[in-house]
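> forwarded from #structure-qc
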């Protein structure tokens, strides 16, 4: 089931999400809903706070090549355990900040541990777009948006655009 995505500014996007203590069928269904919502948007990552659920849960799939096999990842309680000193710059966007993009510098590699939908602990080193995406989504769990990395003037400009967009949507 597709879920509505919160649009910035929304106070729920600035809250720290709580650790997931049990993998109930409800939580697995939520993860499936999040994947459906992300693919439909379309996006490459989605965090539970973006749909108003303050759980430490993210989904991502950064496979973009035409005809390539998708690689949907569901991560409960993801945690960055190591990051490279080397950095990379990507033009980031966000489903909660539609049609706004900006270059963000992040570590080029990130080692992440998480619990998969079957309750197994996983660990992987991500690089390239995957590293950017997983760090972006984990930021959401900590109440941080990609625009928080920008200079205040640019951040305020994007926030004003989002306020205007929300007003326009409310009128429709």
């Amino acid at each position: 089931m597709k879920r509505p995505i919160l649009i910035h500014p929304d106070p729920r996007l600035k809250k720290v999400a709580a650790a997931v203590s049990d993998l109930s069928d409800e939580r697995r269904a939520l993860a499936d809903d999040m994947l459906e919502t992300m693919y439909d948007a379309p996006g490459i990552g989605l965090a539970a706070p973006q749909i108003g659920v303050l759980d430490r849960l993210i989904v991502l799939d950064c496979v973009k090549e035409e005809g390539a096999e998708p690689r949907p990842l569901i991560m409960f309680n993801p945690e960055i355990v190591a990051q490279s000193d080397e950095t990379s710059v990507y033009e980031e966007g966000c489903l909660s900040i539609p049609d706004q993009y900006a270059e963000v510098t992040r570590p080029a590699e990130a080692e992440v541990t998480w619990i998969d939908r079957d309750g197994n602990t996983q660990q992987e080193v991500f690089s390239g777009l995957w590293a950017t995406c997983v760090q972006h989504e984990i930021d959401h769990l900590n109440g941080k948006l990609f625009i928080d990395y920008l200079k205040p003037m640019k951040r305020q400009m994007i926030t004003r655009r989002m306020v205007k967009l929300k007003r326009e949507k409310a009128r429709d």
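QC bot note: The longest strand covers residues 73-83. The chain has one domain: 11-171.
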